[in-house]
């Protein structure tokens, strides 16, 4: 499959066995000069032959919160999933263009998607705790995958810290051994957030993390986001304008011309500017609720 | 069912938009619904009951037929039944048969289950779609081969050709009682039988496991992948735990078939009535089903009854095995992901 912009790439369908020396876009976390900046250039995203998102070019600043807004079906989730190479796990899905993290092309031939996903964590639109694991095991699932030897007390501390950050600790501290699937929907989502931050990713992608939460938990998550942005790069998709305005530093507006046509990034700017004086009429209409 | 009961009650406090609102059409659909509901309930209940009745009938028949043997003394049976081989009581005749049956089936299961899980995972998560369906088709074909053919193949082809392998196994692992040598030639031994049984139960275990693995929610697979799991790690964290109970059920289906398999065992195994774990020696074990098939033609009435008693034992074993597997599956139900 080839695209007008010339960026062709076969759909990498697999995250097979990791190479013994994984090539990672390794940025050192303690080094402030190496904060995680993501540059996206001319990204076209396909589901088979269907062009879902077209021509996205943007920069995601390190140590900041970037919010994506836009009507349902315009490709926000799709775009978000290309940032940690989760898009390609869908059969037939492919990506054309480039996504660079600190100058390293995440879609480069020598980059292992597994390594990318270990650095760029993700919270999904629908809560997906592992049903066969207890609450505690769920939080530790990512850490266990990294094969880190972790002592019992460290593990307990990590579980408590992660759950506390996700504003879930008080509700579950007495039943950490109970199945994660036995929680309410909102609790499950917070569990997923705890699971994602337990591995301390460089970048955290959140797809409508608060859509199933009550206002109190939502505020807690927003506080968490503000807290996390000191160290991480955060990208959040939200349908809640106030939330975008409250937590994000920059906002990108996606839109779609009609069913079947691809979603596009209409405008991206500082959140203040986007919500007060957007350049595009479509952005203004959407933000002020005049969108169809 | 509780809702149906509640629905039949007189209309409870009127809806907010007026008690006198006419609503005959709605009533009619609800009445019809109730009719179907009831019909379906009867259908389901009677189907379930029918199975129980059939089971009870089989058990009753076996018990009734084996009653003479169960109530006769060992010496009486020994004097009248030619194949009793000098056993002192029914229990001492039955014991080695039960042992042989369980051993053959257990070894077959131990060989077939890992293989089946591997094939199922390969077809559900690794193989390209066309190869996967080709492989699935070949495996299904294995299920269509009659057991007599397996028996013939096992006796005429496998037993002679695999003998050197068994000999080698007994040379290397002979210190384990299971593989005590020297391996019989031709290899009409329990390991050969179990191997054939394994091939026979492979299709059912593979097919069921594959379906279960395919049903792993995409959401959970993606959760693992997004945490940075490789494909194998994703299978370990999301697919296998999700499929665990399904795989146990599949293995139990296979075990049921292995326990009851008759022709293949009759044609391959050189039988014997001992409690021997030696899988490579001839004339050591025999299974219940094969024993019935072999002795049935020459049995007089008490002999028949003795064979029925062994059949009853097989029936009980199968039930116990099934119940045990239910228990294993149900033990961690709240973690099963079935909600
Ligand atoms: N697995 C898939 N296969 C094919 N098409 C898909 C798939 N997932 C999404 N799409 C299509 O891609 C387009 C973008 O979907 P996406 O889920 O990214 O929208 P979204 O902006 O996240 O919407 P929402 O706000 O409702 O979550 C839609 O037209 C959708 O139908
Ligand atoms: Mg979405």
TrEMBL record, chain A:
CDD domains named in the record? ABC_PstB_phosphate_transporter
The answer on whether this UniProt entry bears the keyword Translocase reads yes
Question: Quick check: keyword Phosphoprotein in the entry?
Answer: no
What is the protein named? Phosphate import ATP-binding protein PstB
The ABC transporter domain covers which part of the protein? 38-281
The family database entries (InterPro entries) matched by this protein are listed as: AAA+_ATPase, ABC_transporter-like_ATP-bd, ABC_transporter-like_CS, P-loop_NTPase, PstB-like
Coiled-coil-forming residues are none
**Segments of this protein annotated with the region Disordered:** 1-33
Taxonomy, superkingdom: Bacteria
Q: Name one GO molecular function term.
A: ATP binding
Swiss-Prot/TrEMBL keywords: ATP-binding, Nucleotide-binding, Translocase, Transport
Q: Which PANTHER family match?
A: ABC TRANSPORTER I FAMILY MEMBER 17
Q: Which NCBIfam families match?
A: 3a0107s01c2
From TrEMBL, chain B:
Which InterPro entries does this chain map to? MetI-like, MetI-like_sf, Phosphate_PstC, Phosphate_Transport_Permease
> Which keywords, in A-to-Z order, does the entry hold?
Cell membrane, Membrane, Phosphate transport, Transmembrane, Transmembrane helix, Transport
Which stretches of sequence are listed as region Disordered? 1-31
**UniProt xrefs under SUPFAM superfamilies:** MetI-like
As for subcellular location, the record says: Cell membrane
Gene3D superfamilies for this protein: MetI-like
Membrane disposition: Multi-pass membrane protein
Membrane-traversing stretches? 40-64, 97-122, 134-159, 187-208, 262-282, 302-324
Q: In terms of domain of life, where is this protein from?
A: Bacteria
Which residues does the UniProt record annotate as the domain ABC transmembrane type-1? 98-325
This protein's major location comes to membrane
Similarity comment text for this entry? Belongs to the binding-protein-dependent transport system permease family. CysTW subfamily.
What is this protein's function per UniProt? Part of the binding-protein-dependent transport system for phosphate; probably responsible for the translocation of the substrate across the membrane.
Protein name stated in the entry: Phosphate transport system permease protein
Q: Which organism is it from?
A: Luteimicrobium album
Q: What is the lineage of its organism?
A: Bacteria, Bacillati, Actinomycetota, Actinomycetes, Micrococcales
